[in-house]
Every structure is written in structure tokens, then in C-alpha cells.
Amino acid sequence: MPNDSEELEDAANDVEWRKLSVSAEQHGARLDKALVDAAPEFSRNYLQQLIEAGRVTINSQPARKASHKVKAGDELVIELRPTPQSQAFKPQAMPLDVVFQDAHILVINKPAGLVVHPAPGNWSGTLLNGLLAYDTAIATVPRAGIVHRLDKDTSGLMVVARSRTVMDALVQSIAARDVSRQYLAVAHRPWTGPTRQTVDTPIGRDPRNRLRMAVVDLDSQAGKAAKTDVVFLDNADSGCLVRCILHTGRTHQIRVHMASLGHPLVADVVYGGVCVAAMHRQALHATHLAFDHPVTGVQMTFDAPPPEDFQALLAAWGLRYNPNARVENP
After folding, report:
1. Catalytic pick among 32, 74, 135, 151
2. Does residue 151 carry a catalytic annotation?
3. In this predicted model, which residue has the larger pLDDT, 42 or 6?
4. Neighbour-count burial for 112-149, b at 16+ CB within 10 Å, e otherwise
5. How far apart are CA 304 and CA 281, in angstroms?
6. What pTM value is reported for the model?
């Protein structure tokens, strides 16, 4: 598979020059960050390579450093060539379970098996492609308005911004932990700990397997703080049903934290789970989402019942789920 450097030399006959006038809000930003705003369908790494290759100009002069601080009024010109990533940003009609929409946001109930964002191995057929087909105006918003992600095989609720202003507001709300995100999970082994437990351990790349994440020691390994509340709901001979409340949003956070407690999720083979009955993907569902509307300020609350495969697992193991027993964030 060609890498980004090779892609710079490909498709020589398919070139686009894109212009950007640096706004007052972008004054003092790094050049590569400003370019992301002008060409959100390209990766920052690829745009940095364009800078190094002399294919970006500032006020008609070649730019050489990605770290260069731009000024309000600067005129930037980028010479763009297609890459698999940029070509992936194309509309593809698909059925979307839209739980709520207004002029500012969409709330989607994502099915298991749907990749959220194009990436190597999944350059098409993603939620992003579906969003671009659903709302043509969303093409002007970075990442088609996607402000948080779910793993491919995790089902449930996501909020999507329909404008850049709303996207920035939602990103800030998530960073400030003002967005409530709760998940249902079925894990191996009956629960024996306290009915509510907080897991506050950092997560980083597993040093023994770079395709996995792991709980790490920040004194010796790279990683980021991660915090999950785990609330016990019901037990069975084979395992337990829990509600997980995110305080941070690290890659595979719930899956890693549950495995660290000795309760890997059912069918999560990456972290020690085993497929059972009809469940052949990690038994994790984003069931509850709540936030203040980024424009009106109204409290928005959404709940999505678990899908059929999840409910079949609950029935097979005799686990009881009360959809009205929502847990408030501490």
C-alpha cells in the first residue's frame, strides 16, 4: 500500500489549488493547523508533507515550516493532490437512525459494525460518508461534524454538529466533561466488588502489542488520564451487566478498564473476551447521551435501548435490565 510520501507523487494530473485568507480567529495559529481548516478532508500529517515539499505558499512565498505562526490577513495557497483519505470524503447514501435533528445538531443511533470515520482499511462505507449524503451542507464542517466516536463494533448514541460553530461548542463541552455519556456492557465473570466503582487509571498503547491499548504507568510509559465509573446492575452465573459512565474519552477506554478489573466484555476478543450465543462483537452499547444544546442552552437527553443481539445475550444469560434505572453522573 502506498504511503503518504508516495501519494505526493501520484495523481500528478489531478491537482487542486485551494486558497485561504487567515482570519482574526486564526491569528497566531500554526500553519499546519490553519491548513486543516482549509482542507479538513486531508490529514494534518499529509498537509505537513505538502509544506515540506514546497507546495504551500504564504503571501506568494513558499512556506517551509509547519510550525510557522500565521497572521490575520495572510493569503495561503495549497497545492492539493488526491489521497485515499481525501477521496474517502465522498457522500454515500445509507440508512441512518436519526434520533433527533434540528438546524444545529444530529443525534444518531449507530449500529454495530459501522465504522465512524474513514481510515486505512475502511476508506468508504463509514458514518462520515453517510452523513455527507444525508446533509450536503455538513461537508463544510471538519470531519463532517463528528465530535466523538464509537468503535466499529460498539452501538449507540452519537451527536453530530451541523456547523463549525456548533462543533467547536460541543468539543468544548466534552472537554469540560459537561456531556453525559453512559454505556451498557455485559462482561465475563459475576460482579463481586462494590456496586459502584471508579476506575481512574491512565491508558496508552500496549508496549507488547501496538494494536491494543492498556492501563499504563505514566512514570515510564506514554499515556493519558482516563476515568470510568462502573455501576453494577445485575449478575448471572456467567457474567454481569454494568453501566459505565465516561469522564474521559480515551481509545477503547471502557474495554480496557473493564478488562483491568478482571471483567473483559463478552466477545471482546482483543481484551480477553469470548464470543457467546449470538454475540460476536464486544457487548457494549452507548445507551444514554445528555448535554446542553450548544445554541439554545436547553438540556437535551436521549436514551437508546440495546439492539437485538445485546438483548438476546441478556435473555440467554438471564440478566435483567431496567431502562428507567438511569444513573446520574456524580
Report:
1. 151
2. yes
3. 42
4. bebbbebeeeebeebbbbbbbebbeebeebbbbbbbbb
5. 18
6. 0.77
